[in-house]
């Protein structure tokens, strides 16, 4: 059976990527002999629709099982329509996740585990934008006139450039 896994790298020893639609690679593994194919995710940098496009790509490969860290609502809808089971909450290496699938009685996810736009990286940083906690910005009138002033996010405790 062919299983698709979201991955940070291009081999079985790579870590699971917690983002499905914006993962770095998809690795499709044949569970009988652990042979695999690697595909660079061409949708990872899309500003919108990455989940839908990635799920459509996986569906086109004939895979019926997906192992990943998280899955958003739009990708989940594509998988549901195409009768593809998705197993979220995966951690460790691709090989470990496939072995867990083969040997344990995991249950497929029935709902998305993250909201839309999960894992979008902020321009000019290597950080994922996930608004949290109290956010205070200096300057601006709330009409997009912040003029590039710095914001401070209390919960994360890091200065970030305002959008």
The average pLDDT value, as a whole number, equals 78
Second-tier CATH architecture of the largest domain: 2-Layer Sandwich
CATH topology of the largest domain: Nucleotidyltransferase, domain 5
Principal-axis shape: globular
Proportion in helices: 10-25%
Number of discrete helical segments: 3
Structure in words:
This protein is of the alpha/beta class and 163 residues long. The chain folds into 2 domains: 2-103, Dinitrogenase iron-molybdenum cofactor biosynthesis domain (Nucleotidyltransferase, domain 5, 2-Layer Sandwich); 131-163, no CATH class. Helices cover 18% and strands 21% of the residues. The protein contains 3 helices and 8 strands, in the order βββαβαβαβββ. It has helices at 50-60, 73-81, 94-103, and strands at residues 2-7, 25-30, 36-40, 65-67, 85-87, 135-137, 150-153, 158-161. The protein has a 5-stranded mixed β-sheet, with helices on both faces. A 3-stranded antiparallel β-sheet has the order 6-7-8, with no helix packed on it. α1 (50-60) packs parallel to α2 (73-81). It starts with a strand and ends with a strand. Mean pLDDT is 78; it is low at 122-141 and 149-163.
